[in-house]
Amino acid sequence: MTWNSKLRCFFLLWVLNSNIILASLESEVSAQSDVKDHGEHDNEDYSLERAGSFDQIFKIQQTYLTVQVDQLNSTNTPRAKDEKRRLLKELSRAHGKWGDQHPRKKLLDALFSYSRYFERNIPDVNRWRQLYNHVSSKHKRLLDRTVSYTKKFDRAESLLRQNHFLCEDVVNEALSYYEIGREELRKHIADAEKAGIVADKMSVSQSLKHIGRDWTDDGVSERDGAFPCILDSIQSLFPNRQSSRYKVLLPGSGLGRLGYDVAALGGFEVTNNEVSAYMNIMYRFIETQSKKDAFQVYPFVDGWSHHVTQDDMFYQLSFPSMTMNNSNVILVEGDFTTVFKDSKDKFDVVITHFFIDTARNLMSYFETISSLLAPGGYWINFGPLLYGTGPWVQLALDEILTVTEDMGFQFVDGPESCGSLTFPDKKVRNKEAAYGYSPRALTKNAYHAQSWIARR
Q1: What angle do CA 225, 229, 231 make, to 5 degrees?
Q2: Which domains does the chain have, with CATH numbers?
Q3: Does the keyword Signal belong to this entry (predicted)?
C-alpha cells in the first residue's frame, strides 16, 4: 500500500441551499488521524522507521460529509499544481549539488526530527523524575497527598505520546505530498544517527506552538495584536475589489494563517512563502484538513515553567479553528530572495509580518521587495527589529526609513489600528504585539512592533 490516500468515491449529489451533500465517501486514511483514543499504543516503539508494516495503522472508514460550496478545500487549483511541479523539480536529488543546503536534505532532516519527537522529549521527563528522587520521603508524601505530584510525570509522558501521534500524522502527509518513499526516509534517519546527528527538538516544538498561535481559538489574542493593522491597511489601499483580483505576497508566512485571513477579505490572490522545512511540513498537513478542530495538540507540555496551574501545562488545543479554504492561497517554499527570481509575477502588495529582522542581508530583502512589487504597489510591514545571530546589516528604524526612501519607496500613513505615530514627522506607527507565548502563562514575550505602508 502506498502512502498516498486512496479515495474511492461514489457521489450522490443534489443541490439545496448552496450545499452539496456527499454520500458514500469511502476513504483509506491514517488511523492516527481517525482514532481519538491512542491509549492502546502506550507501550509501543514510537520511531516511525521501526513501526513495521504501516498497513496496520490504516483502516477503511465510511464518512458522510456536508460541505458548503464556497468552503471546498481545493489544493488542486492551477496555481497550486504549477507550484507543486516547480517544488518537486527543485526537491529532486538531480537538481543542484547534494549537500546540507539541498532542499531535499533539509526536508528529510525535518521529517527525521518530527519522527523523533517522543524520543527527544521523554529524556527531559525522566530527568525530572530522577531529580525528584532527591526529595525526602516526607516531602514526597506531602506533595503527592496535596497536588499528586508523582502523577505529573506520567501525565506529561502520556501527552508527549499524543503529540507524537500527531507528528506521525504530519510525517505521513508530508511523505505523500512530497512524494518521498518510506524507505528513503528510513535510510536517511539511519545514516543520520550513525553519523551521530541528533534530531532537532526545538524546531518541532516551535511548530507545535505555532499551531496554537495561527490555527486555534486560543491564538486570537495574539493574532489580534497584529492582524487588524495589516488587514485594515490592505483594505484601505484596495477598497473596491468586486471586479479585480489583487496579488499579495507574504514572505516568512510560517503556518500561513495571515494569508488565509487576507484571502478571506475577497478580491485577493495570496502567495505565502516560507523557507523553514519544519513550518512547511506542518502547513502541508493543516491545509489538507476539511474539518474544523479535527486534531488536538498539547503545545506547552514540554515546558515546566511559568504555569499558573498544572492544567495550563497540559492544556489541549484543537485545530484548525476554521474550515480550510485555500482556493485563493498557495505556498511557495524556499528562500524569499531567490525562489522568485525566475518568476514573471509582480505583486500588488508585499506584506512582511515579523519578517524583515530575519534577514542575513537586510538590503537583499529591500531589493527583493522592490523588484517583486508592480509599479505603484505597496509594501506593508509589521514587526520588531530583533536581529539574529549573524546579520550582515543591522539598521535602526530611522536608518531603514532613510535607506528605503532613497531606494524609491514613498511612505503613506496607516490606519489607527496600527497604533500611535513613532515619530511626529514620519508615517510609521507602533503598538505592542505579543509573539509566541501562552495567554495563560506567567511570562509574556511582546514587542513595540513597527508598522508602515510604503508605495513603490
Answers
A1: 115
A2: 7-455 (3.40.50.150)
A3: yes
3-state secondary structure of 327: coil
How far apart CA 164 and CA 280 sit, in angstroms, is 18
Burial of 241 (0-12, 13-18, 19+ CB in 10 A): middle
pLDDT beneath 70, residues of the chain: 1-75
Structural contact between residues 226 and 433, judged by C-beta atoms closer than 8 angstroms: yes
**All cell numbers assigned to 342:** 525566475
pLDDT the model gives residue 74:
54
How many residues in the chain?
A: 456
What's the first-to-final CA gap in the chain, in angstroms? 52
> Which secondary-structure segment (H or E) carries 15?
strand 15-16
Whole-prediction pTM: 0.84
* Integer angstrom CA distances of residue 217 from 100, 212, 333, 443: 37, 8, 27, 20
Q: Are 258 and 227 in contact (CB under 8 A)?
A: yes
Do 116 and 170 meet the contact criterion of CB atoms below 8 Å apart? no
Q: pLDDT tens for residues 21-62?
A: 333 333 333 433 443 344 444 444 444 444 444 344 333 333
Rounded to an integer, what distance in angstroms lies between the CA atom of residue 202 and that of residue 232?
34
Task: Count CB neighbours of 448 within 10 A.
Answer: 13
Which residue do the cell numbers 505556498 mark?
331
Provide the 3-class DSSP secondary structure of residue 159. helix
Task: State how far the Cα of 57 lies from the Cα of 172, in Å rounded to an integer.
Answer: 11
Q: What separation in angstroms does the CA of 248 have from each of 31, 100, 240, 263?
A: 37, 31, 15, 9
Distance of alpha carbon 145 from alpha carbon 138, whole angstroms: 11
Closest CA to 355 of 272, 242, 438: 272
**CA–CA separation, 420 and 63 (whole Å):** 51
- Closest to 106 in 3D by CA, of 224, 188, 213: 188
pLDDT, position 73: 52
Alpha-carbon span 451 to 373, nearest angstrom: 18
Distance CA 205, CA 278 (A): 10
CB 451 within 8 A of CB 381: yes
Residue keyed to cell 520588531: 384
